[in-house]
Amino acid sequence: MLRVPQIPLKRDSGAAAPTIADSGLGAPAHVRSEFMRGGRGVTMSTWRPALRDVSDDVAAAWDAAAGRAVDVIQNSGWIAGAIEQAAANTVGNGLRLRCMPENELFGMSEADAQKWRKLVEQRFSLWANNPLECDIEGRRTIGQMQDAAFRQWFATGEILAEIVYRRRYGSRYGTKVRLLSPHKLSRTDDPLNRVKSGVKMNADGLPIAYVARRKHPLIGEYDALVPARDALGRPAVILVFQGLPGQVRGISPLTPGLKVAKQFDQLADATLLASLIQTVFAAAVQSDAPTEDILQGLLSPQEQAMMAAEGVSPFEAWYQAQAGWYDGNSIDVGMGGRIAQLFPGQKMEFLSPNQPTTAYKDFSLHLLRELARCLGLTYESATGDYSDASYSSVRMAGTEIFAITSMRRKHIVAPLCQPIYEAWLEEAIENGDVPFPGGIDAFLANRTAACRAEWPGAPKPQADDLKSAKAHEVYRNMGVITDEMIANDLGVDIEDVYAQRDRERKLREHYGLPEPVQNNVGGAPGQQAEASEDDDADRAR
Questions:
Q1: Domain ranges of the chain
Q2: Which pTM value belongs to this model?
Q3: Taking Cα atoms as reference points, which of 478, 492, 468 lies closest to residue 399?
Q4: Are 399 and 281 in contact (CB under 8 A)?
């Protein structure tokens, strides 16, 4: 037996004791700690997706995803209704302009800035609500453009628009907007000229031009390079999308749910077909002999002689014989449920398909929940089914989903509105319709500060307005919420509210009317007790 000599360790009184890290020894070879170390199984071994740049993934799937998304939007009632609800939640009647200029940067007092904000909002509203003024096609208002662009984003994952200048009869301004379908952008690549999926970029990755597909009556389709900005640096093309770093084009947010939408249609069709089949009965003749021998055995000698003389097949002769038989012997499965005597030698056996349909509801609801989540909606909002929802669950779900709605307003719809507003404001100041300290030159020097704005929309839906008002009252009495924050929750401008209240106060004084009582905003004690009982019932459920 081979023995390995043991070498004693020389201990040094001044040296530290050896450790595992010093010795270089690791764990035994059979003990492993790593990510996905179970990847050799049946489930993970064949799951090896390619890892590449996200822009390449989008370019490869864009056409198929956009085409399928458009198809389900046009042909699926669930998807069409859910997108209608999402557009109503996000855009509603249209996001409104709320001017918030940094007036200190261009020497405007707070009082003057307040008057300037109201003037700009009023003038912009006049322009934005007149299709002849704002739309190059003269068809849509800015609010309708927001709605159409948001729906287009669901279909293609992108919003494409142009800002053009066109003076025409009946319009005060020349700034116009043209909405375009994103499929008009080419998806060609030209690495030498820094063109990726139809977007030409500089060395920093900033889009400087877009390759647009155009049609000519003589030469057909051709590609044209459209600058992203004009000679003065103003945006000429607006392309809005959400994406990851390195992504230059968007893709439909419905893409992860396309398979689910198709599965729901297949499930519905299969269930309907199974239900229809179960309403039909079938009869079978049981025998081990060949089919032709069975049919000949069912015929009489006279019928077989007729078959040979007329040259018909056994099946045709047998079918004619049955037709003649049943002319006088009918099968009646009506109210009496009676069956006449069958053709001699036949044994009728009723066959019914076995199709399990008990799990249809649960599985279909699971698919609808996945679709609703993909669309950024609650299940109740997407389907209109509130049968199993309580006040607390609806309120919590609405609060969570409203965060998605707010994000879409800020990152999808507002980036379309802001360049349009800036282009209009520049023209309005240059024409003298909107005064500005220092004129157009001072505006161009302080464009970012002067054009600062927000685009609020409809308020968050409330499951119970009385309970929400009571919460606002409690928070306001605690001093942790302001009137402006309450107004924002209600979807109104606090300055408009104060101005309207001042006008109404003056009208009441003019007509000698008393002032309204402001206390008991949260409701009477009986109402508060009723609301408390509702909360207890929700907790019990």
A1: 54-187+229-257+402-454, 282-351, 464-517
A2: 0.73
A3: 468
A4: no
